[in-house]
Amino acid sequence: MTVTTTKNWRTPTAVLACGGLIMTLAMGARHGFGLFLQPMSASHGWGRETFAFALALQNLMWGAAQPFAGLIADRWGAGRVLFGGSVLYVAGLVWMAYAGSGAELALSSGVLIGVGLSGTTFSIVFGVLGRLYPPEKRSMALGIAGAAGSFGQFAMLPATQALITGAGWLDALLVLAAAAALMAPLSAVLAEPPRAAGHRTQQRIVDAIREAASHRGFWLLTGGYFVCGFQVVFIGVHLPAYLADHSLSGNVGVACLALIGFFNIIGTYGAGWLGQHHSKKHLLAFIYVARSVIIAIFLAAPLTPASAYLFAAAIGLLWLATVPLTNGIIAHVFGVHYLSMLGGFTFFSHQIGSFLGAWLGGVLFDRTGSYDIVWGISIALGVVAMMMNLPIDQRPLARLAAA
Question: Is this model's pTM higher than 0.90 or not?
């Protein structure tokens, strides 16, 4: 059931467009952080573990804050959460530019930006769209919003690299902060009006949490999402350095991340479309095992610019394709009233995986001089995630079916 709006300008199309722009800015800036690893580490004399830990902490804080941000958005409206997240995001980028120690880097890029991301990305935007769009259009709307985040990666990565090369990494961070500030005014369009009595749920928050916790499929979905975070963040943070270690130019790494972003637009939109017509859990299982196959082929083949580009294109098709499908299952099984909160709990698992993917990549490289162990872990986890998603019961709960 859709939520009736009280302002004519706040149409579903306008909300989707502004939500997509917020996703573009938030995810576009965030996906470029890996480009700062080498220049900032060299400038400050840090090992890769210092920068990797800060980005790992960012992902962990993003996930830990997400259920609470989602709860506030579900109960009191997403507009406040989006505005507050925008302010924290901008403050974190500015402080990151002037961070003089590993601790300051962790607090700025790790804590502030991490919490800011929890208020400006998937769960918050998807919660608004999930309540606004009817079930038959919901999966597609989520896919479009997810594709907008992917477009940010495609469009902003080359610009970020050009800024780092032309103006230096410090000024590049300040420009990103100015761009991120645009999210604050856009948040007004996603400010949900008060719900009419007929649209309010009688279910308490604690009952919604208990209901999800007792559902086996929720835990399986959450476990699979852990793998998604591990794989994509390890690749996003460490792929440019991995290619540079094998004597490929820095431009190849930037081009690969941009290709991931471009093909992710296609993959995320396509996943949203397919989710309307096919089993979401089967699509998720395919995505996870296909990632493992693509990584294995990439490692087995000779590493050249061409093979790197092919890998980026292939993995990009599957990059965030899990997001609309995962949130779509949650909305279908549990309803949309607490979608941001329940999606936040699932996303926390994703971000624990993200923390480990980013941090272990730096730790094991510093210890062994190679990323081989983490690549192997990524392949094995993809197979595990496939097996976890196949037995999910994605039928609506009895109370929803009765309604």
Answer: no
